[in-house]
Amino acid sequence: MLKPKRSSFALPYGRSFGHKILFLFFLFSLTGTPSALGKTLSGKVLKVFDGDTLLIRVPEREEHVRLREIDAPEITHQHRMGQEPWGRKAKEYAQSLVKGKTVWLEIEEGDERDKFHRLLAYVFWGETFVNREMVRSGNAFFFPGLFKGKYAAELQEAEEVARLKGLGVWDRKNGLQERPQEFRSRTQREESFFSKGWRIIGVQKEKTPPKENPVPEDKVVANKRSMIYHLPGSAGASQVNPQNRILFDTPEEAEKAGFRRAKSGRPIAP
Known about the structure:
Elements: H1 17-29, E1 40-50, E2 53-58, E3 61-67, E4 70-71, H2 86-98, E5 102-106, E6 119-125, E7 128-129, H3 130-136, E8 141-142, H4 152-165, H5 180-200, E9 220-223, E10 228-230, E11 245-248, H6 251-256, E12 260-261
Parallel strand pairs: 3-6, 10-12
Antiparallel strand pairs: 1-2, 1-5, 2-3, 4-8, 5-6, 6-7, 9-10, 9-11
Helix pairs in contact: 3-4
């Protein structure tokens, strides 16, 4: 776990206690490691969902954490194709780095969560900057967001190193053919097209009678206020207020985003 580096400076003798505390904060700010001055958390990694998403127990709660500014290959789910073998390899590499370990999370002020309410963080274990290691090893891509974070340039440089060396997804013979966001965009369009085609020829699932808030029959419906999701066609799905609703293709995607499954027979209030 990262700790503030030792300093050779001595506290000025005879100063007030308040002055000494301020001086200590100043020293910590010079170390370049997570400190009490920054937006930081410490917690144990409970689960690795894939190469860029973790479940971490921080003080008083569990958080689904998205490794900031990186994007790992998609993993195959039960009903959804992925980017194998790269998705599996990225998950295994992330597990080797952090599973079961206590890590530091460094969070950017004003840009703390993504649209799925996952905590966006730079993750550190010992001297290892996990986000950078995933990219530099060729197990993930640099993935800049709308808000440029503190280590964005460092992650972009790590990707260039991996690309030039032909590591992992950049392998010159058998590397990954498209970035994860391109894969997600393409497969979502294809699934939408085929779903429409099945409806045209009359092959479709039985529809749940619409209630207050009709929802797509094949979507998992999540409530961002309660952080609970409902399976397709369940009674609770139509009770979620559209303003609080997030749709997913599979339960695995909802759980990866931090939602938990609703108990059967107990409708969740919107």
